[in-house]
Design goal:
Helices cover 40% and strands 17% of the residues. The protein has 500 residues and is α/β, with parallel strands linked by helices. The protein binds adenosine-5'-diphosphate (ADP).
């Protein structure tokens, strides 16, 4: 846009505090990511025992791009027979070749996987965005670099397990069944597969039905890197396929990330068996912003906490608790910042908020938006442009909510923030802890002592201070209460894959 054209556009401030209304004055030129080189086959088979094999019943299901509702490819539906085949392959590898490979060599395979992910990073990022709807900026700068980082980190531990667990002779569990969700497809695969391999286990992994593409690309990479057959098996399918893994008699451990509803089902199926399990479930994270917090920095943090990955984040900061004296100021700044977010094509490098992952989730989030209004809350959405096709929802915030509202208590898993106020630290902590979940929370203040005082009373597995949604392979991650059991990441994540 030339300078002359810019002058012709009337300046419309959104609030008395606004310096410039970027949304109407500036238009970003499209910056599409070239996706031609990321090859997608018409159909993907199951990956069992080092080979791509057809599903026993010959059934496939379609996978669509949530940004334009077009079919991308088809995945095989694994039945009980296919899962059994995968578990047998994993058992054979566990007792055979994989167990004879030295820890150092095992580590080398994992390093090789990490390096190959880095080499093919852009391809993986494109496929992740096409299949799942997340902005390419996030898959490129967050998801895929973290995937490589988790493989590098656990590769390093493979030949040092006796130092991680002094006085023990760490032994692997055996065959691990791993079931992952659709919000961070390749990253959740890395969280599961990297520590399992580092400790000498073999795996049968099931990606989520709407986002299986990068797991099958990963299977190609596993083949290319020469990992012995049967060490990693990938079976696709919906909930029933997951249940077949959970209920298979020869599986030694279940690692699950997904909804609290399915987590409870899995926990009850496993009761009375000697299978180990880790469950990483839902959340309803709160962010406590104190009057002494650096406000502009906090506003950026809140935006990242809730609108990152369309709010499809189990540890998302979906509740803002702001100290009364600064509430108006923070809410106004948030509204101004919302107006600048670009919602649209996930493959455009300017996009901040991409597509909702599936039609089903799109309907769920919309139901919560209606529910919030019915519950008497005030809804605010920016009037940004949104594509006509695909599943897009404007970043939303609700004010005038109360603690008992369902939009405050229940996990929405979308770009929806609720805003409440508090007066004292005690009240803020009370409101933070008053939900069924306990995965992650955040605190924003200028005082280190307040971070420790408040943080130590927040009941959640993760507490971020003056930041949010930051992940590191060395840090354990997991929940209290209905957010799950067990920890992933760091040395805790290793411990979950060895015998006691
Ligand atoms: P979300 O609500 O985030 O989609 P789900 O818990 O439904 O989460 O799904 C997470 C993963 O669990 C997916 O891979 C899904 O196919 C799988 N899954 C769903 N139902 C079951 C079940 N009954 N047993 C095992 N896995 C399941």
């Amino acid at each position: 846009m030339s300078n002359t054209e810019t002058k012709d556009v009337p300046y419309k401030p959104t609030s008395p505090n606004s310096k410039l209304d970027f949304a109407s004055v500036w238009e970003y030129a499209p910056a599409p990511q070239d996706s031609d080189f990321a090859e997608v086959k018409e159909k993907y088979d199951l990956f069992i025992d080092g080979k791509f094999v057809k599903p026993s019943k010959g059934r496939y299901f379609k996978s669509t791009n949530p940004a334009n509702e077009e079919v991308i490819t088809e995945f095989a539906e694994a039945t009980q027979k296919d899962v059994d085949k995968a578990v047998k392959a994993a058992r054979k590898a566990f007792e055979g070749e994989w167990s004879r490979i030295s820890a150092k060599e095992r580590g080398k395979y994992i390093y090789r996987i990490a390096r190959m992910i880095q080499e093919r990073a852009r391809e993986f990022a494109i496929l992740e965005s096409m299949d799942g709807g997340k902005p390419i900026r996030e898959s490129r700068d967050v998801d895929i670099p973290l995937v490589a980082a988790y493989f590098f980190y656990y590769a390093g531990w493979a030949d040092k397990l006796e130092y991680a667990f002094p006085g023990k002779q760490p032994e692997p569990l055996g065959v691990c069944g791993q079931i992952i969700p659709w919000n961070f497809p390749l990253l959740m695969l890395a969280w599961k597969i990297a520590p399992a391999l580092a400790t000498g286990n073999t795996v049968v992994l099931k990606p989520a039905e709407t986002t299986s593409l990068t797991a099958l690309k990963f299977a190609e990479l596993v083949k290319d890197c020469g990992l012995p057959d049967g060490v990693v098996n990938i079976v696709t399918g919906a909930g029933q396929t997951g249940a077949e893994i959970v209920n298979h008699k020869d599986v030694d451990k279940i690692a699950f990330t997904g909804s609290t509803k399915v987590g409870k089902l899995i926990q009850s199926s496993l009761a009375g068996t000697d299978k180990k399990y880790t469950l990483e479930l839902g959340g309803k994270g709160a962010m406590l912003i104190f009057e002494d917090a650096p406000i502009d920095q906090a506003v950026e943090g809140i935006i990242n906490a809730i609108y990152f990955n369309q709010g499809h984040v189990c540890c998302a900061g979906s509740r803002l608790l702001v100290q009364e004296g600064i509430a108006d100021k923070v809410i106004q700044k948030l509204k101004d910042r919302l107006a600048t977010l670009i919602v649209g094509d996930p493959l455009d490098k300017n996009t901040d908020v991409g597509a909702i992952n599936s039609k089903e989730q799109f309907e769920t989030v919309n139901k919560y938006l209606e529910l919030g209004v019915e519950e008497g809350a005030d809804i605010y959405q920016c009037d940004c442009k949104v594509p006509d096709n695909g599943y897009f929802i404007r970043p939303t915030l609700f004010t005038n909510v109360s603690q008992s509202n369902r939009i405050v208590q229940e996990e929405i898993f979308g770009p929806v923030l609720t805003v409440q106020t508090f007066r004292t630290a005690e009240e803020g902590i009370e409101k933070t802890n008053n939900t069924p979940y306990g995965l992650a929370n955040g605190v924003w203040t200028d005082k280190g002592s307040k971070i420790f005082k408040v943080g130590s009373k927040m009941r959640s597995g993760v507490i971020w201070a003056n930041t949010y949604n930051k992940f590191d392979p060395t840090s354990p991650f997991g929940g209290y209460k209905e957010s799950g059991v067990g920890r992933e990441g760091g040395m805790h994540g290793l411990a979950a894959y060895i015998k006691n």
